[in-house]
Each structure stands twice: as structure tokens, then as C-alpha cells.
């Protein structure tokens, strides 16, 4: 039996008892990947929607020099291909497994198409799907908000303030390691480490591994997440 992560937004508010019939209706299958294996290739036509069951992956895009930039980190519950399946466009990014990975896939037209059973679970899935489209668009907006900042310090601060707003606290857990954080901010890893040390020396932040604390005036600058 497929065990869906409790954190999977695409299946939120669907009773566990309704899931077996729903997954059968969707013709869902589970695929497994080893670290480094490609889940989705650049240029691949996307006709399926996926949900990460276990493990981690990231979506990356190469610039004209061949340098890869991390676009998103995928963890249990994250969806794969939601925007692409809705648009009918081929993928501009690669999705690769970072660890042992299991992904539940089902055809997008089974999600959006007519369900002869007209079951409440399928209607809830469609509602969740629409919410996921909006959430994916906001995730792209948030990353772009970081990248347009002129200095690395401003990029870091924007990113940390976004996390603080979502987690509703001044001490946050960053879901990326240093290499991933550097890629996400389109920065050199060594330059990021130096800037973080300077920011700590300047009393702006404190940190240990993936735990960061906003200090001083920054702690009172949490962005308003209402209505987003």
C-alpha cells in the first residue's frame, strides 16, 4: 500500500480511507531513483504529475556557461511537474535525486479529466491542484525576489526573511545545505560562507549548520504572509 506523506499538499483534506480508490482512479505508480539519477530531463514533455514519497531531489537549470543553478529543493510531499503538466510545455529544468528517492506519478489528464465516480476525494484533489499551481508560482516569485537584489548580503537577508515569514519565527531552519543555498542564490559557495561570517560578526544573524537566527532590527522585519 502506498504511504503518502502527511505533508503532501496535493492530497490534503482527503480521508485516508478514500486514498486507495483515488490512486487506482489516477492510475498512480511509484518510481524509485538512486542519488544522482535524473527524474526529469530538460526538454522532456511533461504529461504526468508526481509527489515525492521519500528522499530528496532538486530541480536545476544550466546557464550559457554550463553552470547549474538550483531552482527548487524537493522533499517528501513536494510535487513534481505541476506547472509543466498544466501548461503543456517541455521542461526547462532537470530534476535529479539527491538521495534515495521514491516518487508517485500519475497522468495529469487523470487528475483534470472527468471522473465517472464524481467522488468527493477527486473534487478535493482538483481544489488542491489549483492551490498547488498558485503555490508554485509564488515559489518562483520568491526566488526571483532574492536574485534581483544587487548584493549577496541583500540576497541572503531576503531569503532568510522569506523563511522567517513562512515559519513565523525569527529562528529558522534552512532546507538547503551551504552548496544548495549558494546555488539557490546564484552565488559562489566560498563567497556565501564569507558573507555569512561577516553578517554574524556584524550582529545581523547567528547560525549553526541549518539553523539561523535573525538578530536585532531584522527580527522585527518579518514579512507579512497574510493573503499570499
Automatic annotation (TrEMBL):
- The HTH crp-type domain extends over 150-218
Q: Where is the signal peptide?
A: none
Q: Which residues form the Cyclic nucleotide-binding domain?
A: 10-104
What GO terms are given for molecular function?
DNA binding; DNA-binding transcription factor activity
**GO CC terms for this protein?**
cytosol
Report if keyword Cytoplasm is assigned.
no
Q: What is this protein called?
A: Crp/Fnr family transcriptional regulator
Family matches, as PROSITE patterns: CNMP_BINDING_3, HTH_CRP_2
Q: Which Gene3D superfamilies match?
A: Jelly Rolls (2.60.120.10)
Native source species? Neobittarella massiliensis (ex Bilen et al. 2018)
Name any one Pfam family assigned in the record: HTH_Crp_2
**Annotated keywords:** DNA-binding, Transcription, Transcription regulation
Amino acid at each position: 500500500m502506498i504511504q503518502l506523506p502527511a505533508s503532501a499538499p496535493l492530497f490534503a483534506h482527503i480521508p485516508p480511507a478514500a486514498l486507495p480508490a483515488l490512486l487506482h482512479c489516477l492510475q498512480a505508480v511509484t518510481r524509485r531513483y538512486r542519488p544522482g539519477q535524473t527524474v526529469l530531463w530538460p526538454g522532456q514533455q511533461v504529461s504526468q504529475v508526481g509527489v515525492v514519497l521519500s528522499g530528496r531531489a532538486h530541480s536545476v537549470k544550466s546557464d550559457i556557461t554550463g553552470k547549474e543553478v538550483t531552482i527548487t529543493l524537493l522533499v517528501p510531499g513536494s510535487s513534481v511537474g505541476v506547472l509543466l503538466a498544466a501548461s503543456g510545455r517541455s521542461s526547462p529544468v532537470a530534476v535529479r535525486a539527491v538521495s534515495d528517492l521514491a516518487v508517485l506519478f500519475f497522468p495529469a489528464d487523470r487528475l483534470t479529466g472527468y471522473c465517472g465516480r464524481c467522488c468527493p476525494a477527486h473534487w478535493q484533489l482538483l481544489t488542491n491542484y489549483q492551490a498547488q499551481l498558485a503555490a508554485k508560482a509564488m515559489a518562483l516569485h520568491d526566488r526571483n525576489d532574492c536574485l534581483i537584489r544587487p548584493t549577496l548580503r541583500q540576497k541572503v537577508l531576503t531569503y532568510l526573511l522569506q523563511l522567517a515569514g513562512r515559519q513565523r519565527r525569527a529562528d529558522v531552519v534552512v532546507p538547503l545545505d551551504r552548496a544548495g543555498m549558494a546555488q539557490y542564490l546564484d552565488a559562489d559557495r566560498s563567497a556565501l560562507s564569507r558573507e555569512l561570517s561577516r553578517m554574524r560578526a556584524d550582529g545581523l544573524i547567528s547560525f549553526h549548520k541549518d539553523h539561523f537566527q535573525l538578530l536585532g532590527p531584522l527580527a522585527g522585519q518579518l514579512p507579512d504572509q497574510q493573503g499570499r
